[in-house]
Amino acid sequence: MHVPFLDLQAINLQLEQELLDATRRVLGSGRYILGQEVEDFEREFAEYCEVGHAVGVANGLDALILSLKALGVCPGDEVLVPSNTYIATWLAVSHVGAVPVPVEPSLATCNMDPDRLEAARTQRTRAVMPVHLYGQPADLNPILDFANTHGLVVVEDAAQAHGARYKGRRIGGHGHAVGWSFYPGKNLGGLGDGGAITTNDADLAKELRTLRNYGSQSKYHNEVIGWNSRLDELQAALLRIKLRRLDAGNTQRARIAALYGKELANLPELVVPHVIEGVVPAWHLYTVRLPRRDDLARHLAGQGVGTMIHYPTPPHRQAAYTSLGLGQGSQPIAENMAAQLLSLPIGPIMNLDDAILVSHSIRNFFDL
Ligand SMILES: *Cc1c(COP(=O)(O)O)cnc(C)c1O
How far is the CA of 61 from the centre of ligand 1 (A)? Predict the structure, then answer.
């Protein structure tokens, strides 16, 4: 492969010595769950996100489940979710017994369209879950206004948006709770699973610390029916090192995105990502849209360029959600995106020469 989609091994091996030193530090500490590393990471990540509190948990899905639970979303409630998202957003809703109600994206941004929220609202609507998909911040102000007007809670899925900004402020403190994933391939990724919740609500943070640890604040006193969902010391120690590289990695992603934006503008049929006003994307993915998506993917593979599809099947068409009865054609915009979106190589240490090579391979697909 001349240009891999994402070279995770190279990204982590670049930091080999520091990651090994941190591993030794944890090994020698004798403390492997909820110790100093998690505490330090939580403080550093909250600072980074310009938010009051961060609570480390086991993964991104749990971050969303615990957030909904702590904010009082109950069985039978309805939660407005994007029709175009990774299925984890929907699964979190189902795991608290609530029902995911899809809201279509705007074609330009691929994110939840605020103008479609009102039509999806019922007496049972309790929460809205904007997702900052591909690292593009969702248009939060109209979503927050809508939630305020109707007394709904807002849980953001920021699993793809580490470091992104909306109207000057980092993603992490706009909604009531914000769920993060540190899955290895994310902009801030560990060497295993990990997640966090950020919030400006001190009581909510305390409740989340209880829920993640068996519903217990002090050992062997269990106040509520909690989970075992803790970020472990080793991942926290590794993530502290990765966090120091996040801005530099995002800057390189932005350079690649700018290059693609310039090289791929005005190609027939191909639409590049649209960035809404007042945001700084994290560029987790660089996703183009075109009708002949599968032909382009095949052409690029033949030239040694790795691509991926995010996502080939929208949540409402997965077998897991047949019970909702949302047939083919029920979410036409999300279905169109599943058929036409293609993610190009982008990453924190990918070089611009490779991005030029990818652009040229795309241009010669169009005989240019
Ligand atoms: C990765 C991801 C998640 C889930 O994170 P895990 O840590 O894998 O549980 C949730 N939502 C979105 C949009 C994601 O990309």
Answer: 6
Integer Cα distance of 192 and 356 in angstroms: 32
d(CA 351, ligand 1 centre) in Å: 26
CB 196 within 8 A of CB 42: yes
pTM: 0.98
Q: Helix or strand or coil: residue 334? A: helix
Q: Are 286 and 259 in contact (CB under 8 A)?
A: no
Strand runs (DSSP E) across 96-255, as ranges? Answer: 99-103, 125-128, 153-157, 165-166, 169-170, 177-181, 195-199, 216-218, 221-222
CA of 181 to the centre of ligand 1 (A): 6
Structure tokens, 321: 């959600």
Q: What number of CA atoms fall less than 13 Å from residue 303's CA on the CB side? A: 20
Distance (Å, rounded) from C-alpha 61 to C-alpha 45? 18
- For position 367, what pLDDT does the model report? 86
CB 309 within 8 A of CB 342: yes
Exposed e or buried b for every residue in 106-129, given b needs 16+ CB within 10 A? Answer: beebbbbbbebbeebbeeebbbbb
pLDDT tens column, 185-228: 999 999 999 999 999 999 999 999 999 999 999 888 999 999 99
Domains in the chain and their CATH numbers?
8-103+110-243 (3.40.640.10), 246-367 (3.90.1150.10)
Q: Is 183 in the pocket of ligand 1 (CB under 6 A)?
A: yes
Helix (H) or strand (E) holding 296: helix 293-302
* The pairing of beta strand 153-157 with beta strand 177-181: parallel
pLDDT tens digits for range 144-191: 999 999 999 999 999 999 999 999 999 999 999 999 999 999 999 999
Give the integer Cα–Cα distance in Å for 129 and 110. Answer: 15
Q: Are 224 and 217 in contact (CB under 8 A)?
A: no
Judge if the beta carbon of residue 88 lies within 6 A of ligand 1.
yes
Nearest to 284 by CA among 130, 162, 107: 162
Tokens representing 173 are: 């403190």
CA distance 139 to 132: 9
CA–CA distance from 173 to each of 113, 135, 156, 290 (Å)?
20, 16, 9, 35
Give me the residue label for tokens 């992104």: 164
Q: Would you state the structure tokens that stand for residue 27, as one six-digit string?
A: 């090994």
